[in-house]
Amino acid sequence: MKNIAIFLNTSKEKSQEVSSLMVASLLSRGYQVYSCKETPIIETKTFPRGKLPKNIELILVLGGDGTFLSIARQYATTKIPMLGVNIGNLGFLTEVEVKDLEETIYKIDSGKYKIENRDMVFARVYRDGKVIETTRALNEITIAKGPLARIIQCHTYVDDVFLDTYSGDGVIVSTPTGSTGYSLSAGGPIIAPNVSSMVISPICPHSLHARSVVVSNKSNVKVRLKDLNQEVMLTVDGQQSIKLQGHDTVVIGLSKYVIPVVKIHGKNFFDILRLKLNRGSRN
């Protein structure tokens, strides 16, 4: 991994300082370092966003989980391993902390890492029997009502078998990676990243029996909307949205693309989980 592309969230505090330190360390070890023209870093070669040089072997993301999700979706088809460095507030995907930068670079240089493939899901929106939108997500697909207080009804099926009608604010279908995100806030379970599954979680359901359901990632989840008298949106990883209409059907399933995530030796999911979930707790 001697050719590295760095993507930087310049809105994060100390982003330029952290990126300069990382680039200096990588260059001193003989790496070729590239950055995006829209967020250039001094002493790197630059490339236009969306046109990653063909020799890139590793993508480094400096920011928070939101930055990582955005870059992951954009470059999923390249199959290039990604590593996130957390310069935000809370990161499950950007698991490397700034204080560990030098040690992380040393471990990359020494081959002390492994690649862990993270599943993505696709979503297809059907209207009048035709596909009008197709997208993919690393964390989750969310179908949720707009700002009005009225509930919506989501008729939900797994492999064409009726599961439930969720009456409430909507429904989330998440990957194991996304189980620590919006799905968790909605009361869903935490799923280890290597468990082949998807989680269906109702949002603020108007029913005491409505609970999250874990299904195989080989299944297809179908959500059909009834008549609508308000705005309903399909949201991708909390970052992109598609406006839905009454009687639209959304089919969600396992994408053919995965995100290869670099895992540094000495770090594991449960250590990171414990650190992140306890960060706001009192001693």
Give the secondary structure arrangement, pairings included.
Elements: E1 3-8, H1 15-28, E2 32-36, E3 45-47, E4 58-63, H2 65-74, E5 82-86, E6 96-97, H3 101-109, E7 113-127, E8 130-137, E9 140-145, E10 152-158, E11 161-168, E12 170-174, H4 182-185, E13 197-203, E14 213-216, E15 221-225, E16 232-236, E17 240-244, E18 249-264, H5 269-278
Parallel strand pairs: 1-2, 1-4, 2-3, 4-5, 5-6
Antiparallel strand pairs: 7-8, 7-18, 9-12, 9-16, 10-11, 10-15, 12-13, 13-14, 15-18, 16-17
Active site: 65
GO biological process, one term: NAD+ metabolic process
Main location: cytoplasm
Question: Any overview of this molecule?
Answer:
With 283 residues, the protein is of the alpha/beta class. It is 17% helix and 42% strand. It is built from 5 helices and 18 strands. A hairpin with a 2-residue loop joins strand 7 and strand 8 (130-137). 37% of the residues are buried. The model has no long low-confidence stretch (mean pLDDT 92).
Offer a concise description of the structure.
The chain has 283 residues and is an alpha/beta fold.
Pick out its properties:
single chain, Tumour Suppressor Smad4, 283 residues, alpha/beta, Rossmann fold, six-stranded parallel β-sheet, six-stranded antiparallel β-sheet
